[in-house]
């Protein structure tokens, strides 16, 4: 009987435990089964942790670049070679220390390996208009034979701000000449007082170039370069000055023209330019070309032991004396002409003649130039 009661009590306890377990098992348990909210929170936490790491890495990388840039100002980091080279203050400072002035920087940029530069001088009147003289001058290099690469050694000297800005726009080698408040901007008619002043300022500038050790070819902007002239210019170091002429007869009686000449930098030529510029005070109202002719006739060339060569108009021609052979002509100068408009009109015709000759028959010896009517008429006004 006792055994029966104990068995019944044990069975009742087991039944109660089974019910309790069933209720506990079926009740939702947060600690055992993760919900969707918990999963999303976990993912967001992981993403945030990764974002923090990426930001830290970017900041550290940026600080590293800044540290390299600040500690090595003379060496542009290879990470951004273009940007840092364009905005590197130390580079600009070094350039100022290396070059004496803006002229030195311009000469270095334009010169050949043997320090030779092609120089022309322009003002506002030569860069403005529907067809400016400077544009026509450059057209000659474009259509000429073996002349395009010579533009790399061409230095444009601007007498005013307008011509300087035009030169920079064309991406040429440019230098703005200081004129001490004198206005050289407008057209200066041949032999006018402003024309004479501008010619003497040009002579003083070219003397400065020689004293810096640079050889140069000076060319007026109204000279068309139809062929590379260097093969017809002696590279012999004994020749100090090679100068164009209005008429050629091979002697010192040639009427020289300072619109195109090549000069070597040495003690003799520097002395010549000094004497040339000093002559302006003794010859009031004379243009610089007249003073140079007087120095030649008075024996200054011989006293300085200058070796001078007069350039044949067959190769270096002008409106005063046309070349007789278009197959060999190198330059054509609009000399013997009074106004810019007349020079422009006739030089455009010359360039047209040249292009027509090249397109037709490059070996013709019977080819003739169109007459320079506009320049002839310019003296009537």
TrEMBL record:
Q: Keywords on this record?
A: Membrane, Transmembrane, Transmembrane helix
Report the residue ranges that make up the Nucleotide-diphospho-sugar transferase domain in this protein: 150-347
Name the InterPro entries for this protein. At1g28695/At4g15970-like, Nucl-diP-sugar_transferase
Spans traversing the lipid bilayer: 53-71
**Name by which UniProt lists this protein:** Nucleotide-diphospho-sugar transferase domain-containing protein
**Which organism's genome codes for this protein?**
Solanum commersonii (Commerson's wild potato)
């Amino acid at each position: 009987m006792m055994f029966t009661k104990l068995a019944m009590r044990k069975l009742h306890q087991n039944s109660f435990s089974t019910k309790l377990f069933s209720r506990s098992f079926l009740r939702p348990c947060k600690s055992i089964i993760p919900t969707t909210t918990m999963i999303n929170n976990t993912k967001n936490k992981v993403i945030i942790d990764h974002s923090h790491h990426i930001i830290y890495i970017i900041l550290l990388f940026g600080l590293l670049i800044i540290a390299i840039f600040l500690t090595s100002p003379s060496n542009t980091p290879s990470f951004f070679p273009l940007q840092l080279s364009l905005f590197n203050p130390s580079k600009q400072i070094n350039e100022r220390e290396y070059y004496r002035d803006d002229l030195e920087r311009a000469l270095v940029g334009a010169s050949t390996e043997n320090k030779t530069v092609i120089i022309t001088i322009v003002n506002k009147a030569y860069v403005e208009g529907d067809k400016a003289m400077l544009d026509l001058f450059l057209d000659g290099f474009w259509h000429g034979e073996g002349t395009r690469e010579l533009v790399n050694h061409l230095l444009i000297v601007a007498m005013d701000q307008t011509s300087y800005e035009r030169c920079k726009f064309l991406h040429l080698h440019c230098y703005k000449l200081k004129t001490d408040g004198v206005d050289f901007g407008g057209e200066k008619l041949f032999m006018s007082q402003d024309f004479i002043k501008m010619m003497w300022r040009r002579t003083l500038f070219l003397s400065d170039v020689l004293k810096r050790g640079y050889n140069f070819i000076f060319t007026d902007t109204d000279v068309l370069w139809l062929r590379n002239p260097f093969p017809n210019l002696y590279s012999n170091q004994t020749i100090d000055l090679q100068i164009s002429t209005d008429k050629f007869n091979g002697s010192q009686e040639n009427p020289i023209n300072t619109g195109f000449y090549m000069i070597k930098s040495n003690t003799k030529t520097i002395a010549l330019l000094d004497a040339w510029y000093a002559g302006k005070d003794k010859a009031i109202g004379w243009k610089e070309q007249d003073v140079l002719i007087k120095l030649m006739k008075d024996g200054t060339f011989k006293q300085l032991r200058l070796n001078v060569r007069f350039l044949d108009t067959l190769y270096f021609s002008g409106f005063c004396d046309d070349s007789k052979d278009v197959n060999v002509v190198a330059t054509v100068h609009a000399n013997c002409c009074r106004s810019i408009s007349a020079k422009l009109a006739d030089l455009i015709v010359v360039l047209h003649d040249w292009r027509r000759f090249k397109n037709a028959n490059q070996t013709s010896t019977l080819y003739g130039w169109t007459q320079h009517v506009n320049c002839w008429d310019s003296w009537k006004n």
